[in-house]
Amino acid sequence: MSDMTLLRIGIAVAMSLLLGAIIYFGRGRKKGQGRRVPREGTSGEARSEPSLGDQFADGWNSSPAQQEELALDGSPAQSELGKRVSEQFDRIVSLYVAAKAGNKLRGQDIVVAAEKAGLTFGHMDVFHRLVDGKPELGPIFSVANIIKPGSFEMARIAEIETPAIAFFLTLPAPVGALDAWETMEPAAQRMADLLDGVVLDEERNALGRQRVQHIRDELRAYDRQHSAPPLSKSNRW
Fold it and tell me: Where are the residues of the annotated region Disordered (predicted)?
């Protein structure tokens, strides 16, 4: 099996991490969603990060390689802004901003909130947070629609309604892992405030201080094991 085939398989497995929320949110909110539910045997234990398949299943029918060539709605990509420099990564960290029970996030409101949070619309018709002054380095994190195909089609943005949007950063990023998180998490909180939504972790539980601290600790450890450029203060939201 060639190196390119192995790489594409790895990317496919990883990108599928971004796609169980489509099914999860698409089948409706369950009673208690947004509240952390204690799990047996997890007290005091570090939680493992999910595989990409846990988050967006069956959402994008094309392969990740095809997605790099086409926008998520199947039309040619109109922008290279936010395109990753390398397809190789070893971890994804994600968050969700979800509408409150009985509500939806509306496309036009998402666009306004994204702009206020410092995001740029670009590659694959989703939003990206770029490194200030160095957009060619690729996205610090990106924001997609959890309703397939995952994109925000601007021609019909006024018609778009969704139960949630997904924030995800892939590591290694153009900045350090902790700096990337410290850019993404406040942006998610800011957009949640603007959209009257709630921030959920990768398991669709309300994002709490303990979970945030755990993620920070993990990303500090990641940074110690990987050399990464620092993020200037101007890049923080």
Answer: 31-60
Residue 157 CB-half CA count within 13 A: 13
Say how far apart CA 19 and CA 212 lie, in whole Å. 22
The CATH fold assigned to 77-235 is Cell Division Protein Zipa; Chain: A, (3.30.1400)
Nearest alpha-carbon partner for 88 in 6, 174, 7, 4:
7
Runs of H (alpha helix) within 78-125: 107-116
According to DSSP, the residues that pair with 169 across neighbouring strands are 93
Residue by residue, DSSP assigns 172-212 as: S-SS-HHHHHHHHHHHHHHHHHHHTEEEE-TTSSB--HHHH
Q: In whole angstroms, how far apart are CA 217 and each of 49, 108, 164, 222?
A: 13, 36, 27, 9
73 and 151 Cβ atoms separated by less than 8 Å: yes
Query: Which residue matches tokens 């085939």?
Result: 5
DSSP at 213: H
Longest dimension (CA), the chain: 49
Chain segment 185-233, per-residue pLDDT in tens? 999 999 999 999 999 999 999 999 999 999 999 999 999 998 655 555 5
Distance of CA 197 to the CA centre of its chain: 16
pLDDT (0 to 100) of residue 33: 42
CA end-to-end span of the chain, whole Å? 43
Domain coordinates of the chain in residue numbers?
77-235
Residue-wise pLDDT for 74-102, tens only, equals: 344 457 899 998 888 899 999 999 999 99
Please tell me the pTM assigned to this model: 0.67
